[in-house]
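Sample pair:
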Amino acid sequence: MSKAVTPLPSGVAAVILAAGHSSRMQSLDPVRSPGVTHKALLPFPRKPLIVVQAENYLAAGVARVYCVLGWSADLIRPVVESTAGVEVVINDDWSSGMFSSIKRGLEAAGTATAIFLQPVDVPPPSRKTLTQLAAAGAAGVVIPMQAGRGGHPLYINSSVFGTIAAQPPGDRLDRILREVLPAKVRQVEIKDADCLWNLNSPEDWREFHKKHPGLPENG
């Protein structure tokens, strides 16, 4: 008999950050990924990465997925809008840094009980990881850890949405967690080493695929 999967708490949403310029990934070999100009659209393996991310969260039981777009939003938007349960959020201030996208995501997901916060360039987390983070996140923010290193996604309870959103433009979430909300942060060791990956460059992308030979680079 298969082991029952622990459901996520009701009202949990996911925020996928994909508003940045993706400049380090644009030099990816065009033969392997012809026409791809943003890492959110890279094949993983046969669907765009951002679609796989969104579908992964929906399959895990989140109430809604918010994809925060900025640069190249006109290319990415039609790719994700066809997925039921996904809402596109446009960040016109994307060039000011990732925190502006986090604030837009929190605003869009304002009625959620909690969110998973995920940059698009981190591999999709496992269902076990998501339930483990949610189980530990009643009080504030949960950070997945691997051998002393923090990864993604973060699990952020709605009780701290306002505090984070109230911080000034141009701030950094890591500073806020360290200096403003230290008593609300919990670190949880997980087994999913993929939470530490940042697929920011062609080198990162190729190295990740070397470690996951069943995931073809060219889709």
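Residues 29-34 have pLDDT under 50 and may be disordered.
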